[in-house]
Fold this sequence. Notes:
homodimer, alpha+beta, 5 helices, elongated
Amino acid sequence: MANAERVFAALNDPTRRAVLERLRDGPRPVGEIARGLPVTRPAVSQHLKVLKEAGLVDDRSEGTRRIYHIDPKGLGAMRAWLDQFWNSALTAFAAEVERSSKKEDK
Amino acid sequence: MANAERVFAALNDPTRRAVLERLRDGPRPVGEIARGLPVTRPAVSQHLKVLKEAGLVDDRSEGTRRIYHIDPKGLGAMRAWLDQFWNSALTAFAAEVERSSKKEDK
DNA sequence: CTCATTGGTAAGTGAGTACTAACGGTAAGT
DNA sequence: ACTTACCGTTAGTACTCACTTACCAATGAG
């Protein structure tokens, strides 16, 4: 679904971010992702499930192996939320600075 | 300190995001933030503490009231992390498309 | 067919955390 | 001085979640 709620929850975990970092260089099977990480392979499978439901990764079957790769959809939802919030926050912040500077002119 | 780690953890909670939404329109005291939220005022105080440590909000004293406002610093750290990841992910994605299309030329 | 490889799933456990209730501390009003 | 309003902090509790250990299904090699 790639809604912001799931993306936030998915990106909160350090291990899941490490998984994404490893997929940044290209698609990899589950075993290769798990190798080098301080957790077991089943744990990685569970993390991949969460990342997939968040729209951050997708997978394809290749024989007995499942190749995972990054899905730009989830990151797009995240950027959209952040950009919208960023803009409105900055305008509100600027408006506040304006108001407080006008208070000096009495 | 506004490192990405704390920002992720802070933004994960729905109540804290609701607090930020309320501060988006401008600075507010704690009581006014808590009013309308489905949690008690002390809970809001704890959330504000987390948001402040993440660099997402800041506060000033005004008599007996503490006025909280959004601090662009934390959102900046978030955007930096996301933009960096976004760029490298897209280039890796493009490189992969390149590779898979070359495999067709045998 | 047999066996090894790969990976998703279920159950159980431990740690982190969001919440409420109670308290203390400070500033303004009477 | 007394009271009221506003807010942060502490202690305790309930719940979520990341992890491991077992187990099972599917594919490929011999």
